[in-house]
Amino acid sequence: MFSNQSIAITGAAGGIGRAIAEKCIALGAKVAISDIDKDRVEQTASEIGATAFVCDVSDENSILEFIVGAEKANGPINMFVSNAGIGMPDLPGGHAAGGSNESWEKSWLINTMANVYASRALLPDWIKRGEGRFVVTSSAAGLLAQLGSGSYTVTKHAALGFAEYMAMMHKDDGVNVHCICPQYVKTNMTKGMKVVDEGPDRHIEASDVADALVAAIEKEEFLVLPHPVIGEYFQHKASDYNRYIGGMAKQKRHIQLGEVPNLKEN
Ligand SMILES: NC(=O)c1ccc[n+]([C@@H]2O[C@H](COP(=O)([O-])OP(=O)(O)OC[C@H]3O[C@@H](n4cnc5c(N)ncnc54)[C@H](O)[C@@H]3O)[C@@H](O)[C@H]2O)c1
């Protein structure tokens, strides 16, 4: 499917990024992976047969250097997966605006602006070539919410908004955009969280996200929902906003600050 394609992925030292890299390599791609964690990304690259780069996605120049390096290694990029992300809790304030300005600003740069920086570097050439594929890793929190983290909720909504905007602005240029919105996935990000192991809200494997992305690419679907039930929750939200807010407020009563809701309990 990706035979000889040049694919670049950020935040891929482990977790979802690594799983997508492994899947793309299995499907014939030449993959460049990057991460802020030099040792882990180099180790991962040697394990899976990718080329490693160090890149801090909150820095536009660092993304540019990654893109230049990936193109030198594997040729003009066919698909860019903007995957690096962070989640920071509302603490220490303990209310919706309680997170520090630093945590909001960092989340804004990494979860939202990184998508702008990468696409700014790639789009001119893709428009000229009449092809290109950009993948934004948002979250179910981008469609709904992550209780306990306002900065994650808001910056993942913004990432989804930018993915939608890019998709509509460049459909006629031959550029395809996908936005991945998973609920809980077994990676470092959810280590120690209380998440159900069964049912539609279950804690899935990172490889399930990679499989869902490939299936969405095959069907040219914008929204990638490794947990299909999130599509239903999103429809409920759109059809009755008051009920949605009420339901989330009820869930919030069941969780301690800094803890993640177990959706099955509500
Ligand atoms: N795990 C989940 O439940 C879940 C659910 C929905 C969405 N996501 C999203 O999936 C993406 C991947 O996360 P994951 O679950 O694999 O977690 P993860 O923590 O394993 O992976 C995130 C990677 O991003 C890297 N990173 C952090 N800051 C960076 C920066 N400034 N520049 C470059 N790399 C940086 C980390 O070193 C790490 O390797 C994130 O965008 C996350 O928000 C995760």
Question: What can you see in these coordinates?
Answer:
The protein has 9 helices and 7 strands, in the order βαβαβαβαβααβαβαα. The chain has 266 residues and is an alpha/beta fold. It has one domain: NAD(P)-binding Rossmann-like Domain (Rossmann fold), CATH 3.40.50. The chain has a 7-stranded parallel sheet with strand order 3-2-1-4-5-6-7, with helices on both faces. Helix 7 links the parallel strand 6 (175-180) and strand 7 (223-224). The radius of gyration is 18 Å and the shape is globular. Residues 260-266 have low confidence and may be disordered.
Strand order of the largest sheet: 3-2-1-4-5-6-7
Number of strands: 7
Q: What is the terminal separation in angstroms?
A: 41 Å
Basic shape: globular
Q: Which structural category do the helix and sheet elements fall into?
A: alpha/beta
CATH classification class: Alpha Beta
Strand and helix map with partners:
Elements: E1 6-9, H1 15-26, E2 30-35, H2 38-48, E3 51-54, H3 60-74, E4 79-82, H4 101-129, E5 132-137, H5 140-143, H6 150-170, E6 175-180, H7 206-219, E7 223-224, H8 229-239, H9 241-253
Parallel strand pairs: 1-2, 1-4, 2-3, 4-5, 5-6, 6-7
Helix pairs in contact: 1-7, 3-4, 4-6, 8-9
Defining traits:
disordered C terminus, seven-stranded parallel beta sheet, Rossmann fold, alpha/beta, 266 residues, binds nicotinamide-adenine-dinucleotide, 7 strands, single chain, 9 helices, 12% strand
